[in-house]
């Protein structure tokens, strides 16, 4: 009997190692996810803002080193901490939130450094235009949440976009930079 079990166990282990890895699904945790931007102001200081409402999902297969992400941001939820500046950003001169109430980042190319995500490449849709965008991870980790009793994965990501590629040209003639730094802190809960 023992001689039959050993080959059977070996065959089962071999079969299991050749099966495709399964991606896990995660839901973006809005309480631990922040989408912020930074842009220079006349070469003197940096203007910053954030979007308070966002949702999305992530598929991550760390064994196969693949993933997909989709994050949808409510552009009306823009917040600078200064009401007049926030209101101006919502106008047709900039985010045109009445006509374009969302922006979306979709990516299906994940790069890894060991078992950690190091870069996510995809496309950002803003003001009705879609352009490539790569976000580099400055931090990434997965952990078992003692509060949620589930795995959580996430990190800090950043990238630079040329706002004029989306038709956001306000202030270019005055010397405002076209490049905007996008910073995304994201945590997603395994479903």
Query: Cα distance, first to last residue?
Result: 41 Å
The CATH class is identified as Mainly Beta
Helix % is 10-25%
Which H/E pattern describes the elements?
A: HEEEEEEHEEEEE
How many domains would you count in the coordinates?
1
CATH domain fold name: Lipocalin
Describe this structure in words.
An 8-stranded antiparallel beta barrel has the order 1-4-5-7-8-9-10-11. The chain is elongated and about 50 Å long. With 191 residues, it is mostly beta strands. 13% of the residues lie in helices and 53% in strands. It has one domain: Lipid/polyisoprenoid-binding, YceI-like (Lipocalin), CATH 2.40.128. It contains 2 helices and 11 strands, in the order αββββββαβββββ. A hairpin with a 4-residue loop joins strand 4 and strand 5.
List keywords for this structure.
Lipocalin; elongated; 53% strand; 191 residues; mainly beta; disordered N terminus; 2 helices; 13% helix; eight-stranded antiparallel barrel
Give me a quick take on this structure.
13% of the residues lie in helices and 53% in strands. With 191 residues, the chain is mainly beta.
